[in-house]
Amino acid sequence: MLNLQQIRYCLDEMGKLFPNAHCELNHSNPFELIIAVSLSAQCTDAFVNKITKKLFEKYKTPEDYLSVSIEELQNDIRSIGLYRNKAKNIQKLCRMLIDEYDGVLPNDRDELTKFPGVGRKTANVVVSVAFGVPAIAVDTHVERVSKRLAICKWKDNVLEVEKTLMRKIPKEEWSITHHRMIFFGRYHCKAQNPQCEICPLLDLCREGKKRMKKGLN
Question: So what's the pLDDT on residue 216?
Answer without folding.
Answer: 61
